[in-house]
Amino acid sequence: MTQPCLFQGGIKPDEHKSLSNQTPIVQGKLPPLLILPLLQHIGAPTEPIVKVGEQVLKGQIIAHCNGKDCRFIISTPIHASSSGTVIAIEPRAVPHPSGLTAPCIVIKTDGQDKWIERLPLTHYSDLTHDVVRNHIANAGIVGLGGAGFPTHIKLTHDSYFIDTLIINGVECEPYITCNDRLMREHPDEIIAGIQILMHVLGGVKRCVIAVEDNKQEAYLALLEAAKEQVEVVQVPTQYPMGDECQLIQVLTGKELGHNQLPASIGIVVHNVETTRAVYRAVQLGQPLVSRIVTITGNAIEKPQNLEVLLGTPMHIVIDQCGRQDGIERLIMGGPMMGFALPNDEMPIIKTTNCLILSRADELPPLQMPCIRCGACVQVCPINLLPQQLYWYAKAKDFKKAKDYHIFDCIECGSCAYVCPSHIPLVAYYRYVKAEIRANLHEHKKAEIVKRRYEFRTFRMKRDQAEKEARFERLKTVSKVDKEAIIKAAVKRAKELKFNNTRN
Amino acid sequence: MMIATVGMLGGLALLFGLLLGYATVRFKVEGDPVVEQIDAILPQQQCGKCGYPGCRAYAKAIVKGEADINQCVPGGSLDILTLANLLDRTPKSLDIKYGVEGLQKLAVIDESTCIGCLWCIQVCPVDAILGAPKQMHTVIAQECMGCERCIAHCPVNSLSMISIPLTADTWKWPYPVLP
Description:
The complex is a heterodimer of chains A (503) and B (179). Chain A is α/β, with parallel strands linked by helices. Helix content of chain A is 36%, strand content 17%. Chain A has two domains: 26-309, NADH-ubiquinone oxidoreductase 51kDa subunit (Rossmann fold, 3-Layer(aba) Sandwich); 366-503, Orthogonal Bundle (Fumarate Reductase Iron-sulfur Protein, Chain B, domain 2). Chain A has a six-stranded mixed β-sheet, sandwiched between helices. Chain A has a four-stranded antiparallel β-sheet with strand order 2-8-7-4, with no helix packed on it. Chain A has a four-stranded parallel β-sheet with strand order 11-10-9-12, with helices on both faces. The N and C termini of chain A lie far apart (85 Å). By secondary structure, chain B is mainly alpha-helical. The longest helix of chain B has 25 residues, at 2-26. The chains are: A alpha/beta (503), B mainly alpha (179). At the A-B interface, α13 of A face loops of B.
């Protein structure tokens, strides 16, 4: 048994988890329309391989990565989440902080929910890890904890040797309970998924499932299902325990450096729901067509967890749980790291783990000047200087902000939570990060343009010089030769014209 | 004693002199490093709005003291601030004589009116326009820097500047507004 050590900083916000974790997971309704964005993960967008008017079956690939082989690219296919007809491929509003539109495939469901032929790999242990990994890649599985990084990329171990597999069932954000309910209800599927992951990774010496100690029932359920084959560890309840870096530190005592991947120290972390999706893909042949979503908040009549088909519009899911009057805010993700959405017309996508609907019970706290109390410094789990970063963000001093490691910030929101002046610190950091990234992009583009401009200048000079050299040469040619040259040129031109007219 | 001292010091002076002389030849800096630094800051649109034929020419003019640091329209206030930091000068606002700061745009050719005269191709500083004589031309959107040089050269007004549409990909988190 490992004794977990704590990480520096962190907070203990009000949990509000009992709102939604008392009732079992309910199947979401089949919506009349499914809206499936072409990009639901981190990485390259997919390209549609179906046409408008085409009939599709549940689980059929409707958009694939470029080249239809995503084993080595950070992308993963999109599947139809129910059977029906493709009625449009067009830009629709997607759950993104910008509230902008992005290309989506819209399917009108036929109500039959008919599956395509499922091809499970029941005897996966006899197959090579490449075959199983490719199967997982084609099942469209991404990290379901909220980040949406394609899972098969994290199962590649060509460059690193993975000896520790961590299954993340921490779920440290307030309100969210989808992993909690999943661990209580389907611990056996998670354990089966872990065995598949261990087979694909090969050489895993230690596998740990981490559960926060506020989820006693989930812990006991997993402990029973694990049958001592897999280590189940309770970690203290402290936000942001569920972040990869913090969890690794707590479980192994190893700290990740700047820009360092967990894989480089032989560790890989997968979410419990991702693990279950892997089980379903390999043992049942079901690609990722649904996920568990927590619908909660004080504007919901019956807060609960639903197993929702991907692409279901949010308003259908919200109506199923009972909508109260006076909804002021819709947040996707947790209250700490999520973002507000402008309306509920958008679809549930692979990274939607929670929807919080709240009434305006109180006015938002007024932002006051920073008093340099340093409370943010004490809670930063990455040991950054949030207050210093705030000043640089305010002064738009991007270079300094970069020097103070703004890119190591995980945007957990602990600093903004404790700030007595209610400064939206994370909003400032996001702004700085976006500006630095955009500047870098512009700089790269400017470099290319500069090269093109320089080549053009060079080319024009060269052409000019060649032209002058030709004139110089002509000056030295005698009159007889000149006539001969002109005659030859005229003949050439005539031949060319003749050939052209004949063609 | 005195001769030895003088000899020693003289010898040292000679030695270091030779060393320095060698260093100036061996580690000679090609071109003006300040011009390079300024050129790296400038947006490289080669638009010529500053009154010079390209970004590098403008950079040279700044170093010579012919041009001020507030003439670059596409660079705008942010680049002026960076230049002022680099050259230790007081930041100024953009001189409106040269233009007004705005978002980068994209040139497009109206395909129904283009007569294929090649004029725009000849003035495009980054070879972003493609076409052949009497054939329709088109702008390669990825390469166009929005310098607007081609606009004035089109004899049939078939070129225009459009704003680049914002997508979820190019969207940036805004500066937080106070509630």
